[in-house]
Amino acid sequence: KNEVEQSPQNLTAQEGEFITINCSYSVGISALHWLQQHPGGGIVSLFMLSSGKKKHGRLIATINIQEKHSSLHITASHPRDSAVYICAVRSGTGNQFYFGTGTSLTVIP
Amino acid sequence: DADVTQTPRNRITKTGKRIMLECSQTKGHDRMYWYRQDPGLGLRLIYYSFDVKDINKGEISDGYSVSRQAQAKFSLSLESAIPNQTALYFCATSDSAGLSAFFGQGTRLTVV
Questions:
Q1: A103 class by beta-carbon count within 10 Å (0-12 exposed, 13-18 middle, 19+ buried)
Q2: Measured between CB atoms, does B39 come within 8 Å of chain A?
Q3: Cα B18–B21–B24 angle (5° rounding)?
Q4: What average pLDDT score do residues A25-35 get?
Q5: DSSP state, B99?
Q6: CA max distance for chain A
Q7: Which residue in B40, B100, B104 is closest to A101 by CB distance?
Q8: Among A3, A92, B47, B58, which one has the highest count of C-beta atoms within 10 angstroms of its own C-beta?
Q9: Is the pLDDT of residue A40 over 90?
Q10: Which chain A residues touch B if contact means CB-CB below 8 Å?
Q11: A17 band by pLDDT with thresholds 50, 70 and 90
């Protein structure tokens, strides 16, 4: 059983569409991260959330601690948003990160 | 310079060979991690270190060893590489509170 589940696994969108990626987790956490992995392989951190909502450009991340759920939204999607998006949670003890298997997003021009 | 630098970026090696993957960071973080990524699986933890004198096994440590030579350096060794260790390997750092996490660019290792 995975501690972190993401949906969908794969997503294809037309340029300009609004996109939502979901993440549910089953462990107590101290923080949740949304990561982006481009085809070249490198991983960058987009957001760290412990409560509420954060916005950066066209990206919005929300978390509901009671429901153990987070969403990543991309407004006005663009082909350069094509990447794998990974949800990662830091355990409540602070000792480990747990990772979802990722959502592969392709945005078509 | 990148916050977390991994070398080499790509490596092909033969079964039975010893190989070392190196990681260095400029974030000043105490916590460093090694993960492997396989298709269809999330990143899985191999080893982690919370300071220079601290080494801990992750969920898939068999066949691997690590060395924390300094706060900034954390290397991963495969003592005798086998084909199922073919994967993408990531080094990562985090601050003690886990509020920030930085990843290297990854090392693509192929064992033939």
A1: buried
A2: no
A3: 150
A4: 92
A5: S
A6: 44
A7: B40
A8: B47
A9: no
A10: 2, 4, 30-31, 33, 35, 40-45, 48, 86, 88, 90, 94, 96-102
A11: very high
